[in-house]
Amino acid sequence: MSEISRDTLMAYADGALSPAERAEVDAYLADRPDAATEVALMQRQANAIRTLYGPVAAEPVPPRLSVDKLLQTQQKRRSRFWTSAAAAVVLVGLGLGSGWLLRGQADTPGIADQLIADAVSAHTVYVLENRHAVEVNGADSEHLSSWLSNRLQTTLAMPDLSASGLTFLGGRLLPAPNVPGGRAAQLMYEDTTGARLTLYVTPSPGPNTPSYELANLGLDTALFWADDVISCTITAPYPADRLQAIAKTVFSQLNPSGPDYRT
């Protein structure tokens, strides 16, 4: 490999390099912490996208997007405009496989998957920040609780995770277009090694929401939980069993009057 370009780093993050090429990039990143941080960000974003769209990509090509069907349609078109349009649809069918861009509303990912993707995306962005990791510092937790509770229109406590070795850094308000009210709270914690955990809390997404989902995202694990009042996605670079243990503490404090948490 003659040069380590940004395209090379993206291919590395996607797992598209040969073992020899990966070894070269590993050596390159070992001396460049900024590049290594950027690659980690790429990997987390890719994992979030796979969580949201993975089930769709695994589906078979719809009959209406089969190459034969599209070619038949193309042959029936006489004008140059319709011939060009049919050719474009053929390319979409071949390139996207699942035909995501042409799918109906009923086939979109479920609300839990959407919220997990939103949570992981926000986690990826803010855990790398130093001075601006949070909007309101954890030392002002009383104000933070009051402010976020008001914005989410529910009573929101700031869970104490010190027994799990986590220090509360603070939180911020985020947009959440997939839930009533359109707002979410992100609370951030840090362990003694500097690894960070975030809680992405929203009002209840509504009926027919799964009560529990666990997603393994490579570098991170995300655990989603919801009841009739709130939903919460915990994201951290921890194995599932550790995250599940922390979740019991989180959910019992976020909504003490809600149902018991069960893994």
Descriptors:
8 helices; 3 domains; alpha+beta; seven-stranded antiparallel beta sheet; 44% helix; Phosphorylase Kinase, domain 1; 263 residues; globular
Descriptive report:
Helix 3 (33-57) runs antiparallel to helix 6 (111-126) and helix 4 (67-76) runs antiparallel to helix 5. This protein has helices spanning 6-13, 19-30, 33-57, 67-76, 80-96, 111-126, 141-152, 240-254, and strands at 136-137, 167-175, 183-190, 196-203, 212-217, 220-226, 230-236. 28% of the residues are buried. The protein has 263 residues and is of the alpha+beta class. The chain has a 7-stranded antiparallel β-sheet with strand order 1-2-3-4-7-6-5, with helices on both faces. It is globular, with a radius of gyration of 22 Å. The N and C termini lie far apart (47 Å).
